[in-house]
Amino acid sequence: MKPIPVSAIVLMSLVAPAMAETVDVSGTGHGTATNTPMPVNDDLVVVHAITEYTGFDGKNPDNPMASFKGPCFGSILINSGAVSGGGNCHYTDADGEMAVITWTADGMSAEGRTQGTWEIVGGSGKWSDSNGGGRFDAGTDDKGVYTNNVTGELTMP
User: Fold this and answer.
1) Does domain 24-142 have CATH number 2.40.350?
2) Count of H helices and E strands in the chain?
3) What values do phi and psi take at 117, rounded to 5?
4) Would you put residue 25 in left (φ > 0), alpha (ψ -120 to 50) or beta?
5) Fewer CB within 10 Å, N- or C-terminus of the chain?
6) Vertex 37: Cα angle to 34 and 38 (nearest 5)
7) Taking the model in full, what pTM does it have?
8) Which residues touch 6 (CB under 8 Å, ≥6 apart)?
């Protein structure tokens, strides 16, 4: 059997694809919401939703979303108690790389917080080939403080 030269082993390790890592991104987003409800009648309301995020907190110190900042925008329809709608977020991280996340509203809590799903669409740099998503629960408390409680996972290349 012919031995493989060390230089060939080093070269193979350099061209081998990087292993993808799945990361828990559960945490709380903070920002300012400027939502505008537009009632049509007692059972039909459209909400123009805009939130400017200033950061995220989480239990995982390796959460790649921790430095996200930027806007989310879209609309929510409340029709006879049924909630629908969605939008997009355009985040920039601490490295200056951008990610686009889409969100879909599918419910509302008893406290009036919007609930639904989110999914990463793509972005630049490390975000270009990432994928994943989860759930969210977003709203303002009685003191006017906006939070978005996010659960989910991302797979990063």
Assistant:
1) yes
2) 1, 10
3) -115, 155
4) alpha
5) N
6) 135
7) 0.85
8) none
